[in-house]
Task: structure prediction
Amino acid sequence: MASPNTRDRILLTSLALFNAEGLAAVSTHKIAAEMGISPGNLHYHFKAKQLIVERLFMRFEQRLGLLNGSTAAVAAIDDLWLALHLRFEAIDEYRFVYRDMAFLAAEYPALGQRAQELTAQNLLAAQSLCEGLVASGVIQTSAEQARILALQIVFTTTCWLSFERLVPGREAQAEADPGLAAFYTLTLISPYVSSDSRAYLDYLRGKYLG
Result:
C-alpha cells in the first residue's frame, strides 16, 4: 500500500495542473505522469478524475465557508481589506473553479449545483458584512444600497480571474494580485465611507496607485 501522503500529493499536483492548464486539458494519466507514478497507483486512490475535482471543490467550499463565517469580525476598513484579500487568495489558490466554471458545471452537474449554493452563501455573507459596516458607522448607505454593494462585491470576486485573463499584456495566472484586487473591490464602497474611516482607504490608494 502506498503512503497515505500519496492522496494529498495527488490533490496538490492536480490542483497545480488544473490551475495552470485548465480543467478540461488535464487527465488522470497526465497527473500520474507529472507525479512520476503509474496510472494504476493514482487510480488506487482516486478511481476517476471526478473524485479529484470533487475533493478539491470541497476544500474550496470549506475555505470560503470559513471566510463567510467570519464576517461579523469585520468592523473597520482595514478589516474589510484583509477579509477581501483572504478571499481573493483563496480564489487564486483554487483558480480553476471560477475560471473553468462553464466546463465544470457541464461536466459535473452536481458540482455546478453546489457552486450555485456557494454563491448564495457568499451573497448572504456579503449582505451581512455590509449591514455590519453600516451598523458600525464605517459606511453610510440605505438598506437598498447595502444590498447592491453586497451583490457587487460577490460579482467582482467571482469574475475577477476571468477579467484578469483579458487584461492586455499580462499573464493573468502568473500576475494576479489578490491585494490589488482587494483594493479595487474596496473602492466600490468608497462613495459611502464615513470621514472617520477614509484615512485607510487613502493609504491603500497611495500604496497601489502611487
Q: What stands out?
A: The chain has a mean pLDDT of 91. The CA atoms of residues 131 and 143 lie 8 Å apart.
